[in-house]
Amino acid sequence: MSIAYNITASEPVNQQIYRFLRQDIVTCAIHPGSLLSEKDVSARFNVSRQPVREAFIKLAEAGLVQILPQRGTFVRKISAKQVADGRFIREAVETAVVRRAALEASPQALSELAHNLELQRLAASRHDSQSFLLLDDEFHRLIAQSIGCELAWETVENIKATMDRVRFLTLSEVSPPQSLIQQHEKIYQALSLRDANAAESAIHTHLQEMIFSITPIAERNASWFEEF
């Protein structure tokens, strides 16, 4: 079941609806293959159809929905190939980022990463998967921020929507948060030691998790995945 969200005046309505729907799709509150109705979404958020239509277009650009003329807008099933391609691009970007961070990250930046790890442990202890995923993303964003290149994380974020759905499913079924936290700790330790090679190895191991997890997840949720 999708959770309640409130539209505010702090940012454009279409961006808020995009973010809320993206969250619902990523966490599979809205199942792959589901029909998204402009009318229903407009009623849900008490807005006109125009910002909803714009949000749908942005979701389509992220690869999360398919807009079919005369038929409607459908949540895309998960594509194993898109997940693999996204992971490949993400690893290329984040490997370069983490190597620089090992040399350039300030004590303050390392402190922020350590604090983020504490929050991850707290979210895991509370079995709060949604908060954990947000903190996971924040951990990686902080590494990019530590070298003054948040654009690197924005680039990753733009291509990882399909990956995020698999990430959410793996938390309870294949890759529990504690395992991911241990991987994050190894990245942090390598950065603290200024060891670029160890940092690269740690991020590689961390992102390889997606390759090993997608097959069992697809087998358990076959109707949500495109055919291999």
Automatic annotation (TrEMBL):
<dbReference type="GO" id="GO:0003700">
    <property type="term" value="F:DNA-binding transcription factor activity"/>
</dbReference>
<keyword id="KW-0805">Transcription regulation</keyword>
<dbReference type="InterPro" id="IPR008920">
    <property type="entry name" value="TF_FadR/GntR_C"/>
</dbReference>
<dbReference type="Pfam" id="PF07729">
    <property type="entry name" value="FCD"/>
</dbReference>
<dbReference type="Pfam" id="PF00392">
    <property type="entry name" value="GntR"/>
</dbReference>
<keyword id="KW-0238">DNA-binding</keyword>
<protein>
    <submittedName>
        <fullName>GntR family transcriptional regulator</fullName>
    </submittedName>
</protein>
<dbReference type="InterPro" id="IPR011711">
    <property type="entry name" value="GntR_C"/>
</dbReference>
<dbReference type="GO" id="GO:0003677">
    <property type="term" value="F:DNA binding"/>
</dbReference>
<dbReference type="InterPro" id="IPR036390">
    <property type="entry name" value="WH_DNA-bd_sf"/>
</dbReference>
<dbReference type="InterPro" id="IPR036388">
    <property type="entry name" value="WH-like_DNA-bd_sf"/>
</dbReference>
<keyword id="KW-0804">Transcription</keyword>
<feature type="domain" description="HTH gntR-type">
    <location>
        <begin position="11"/>
        <end position="78"/>
    </location>
</feature>
<dbReference type="InterPro" id="IPR000524">
    <property type="entry name" value="Tscrpt_reg_HTH_GntR"/>
</dbReference>
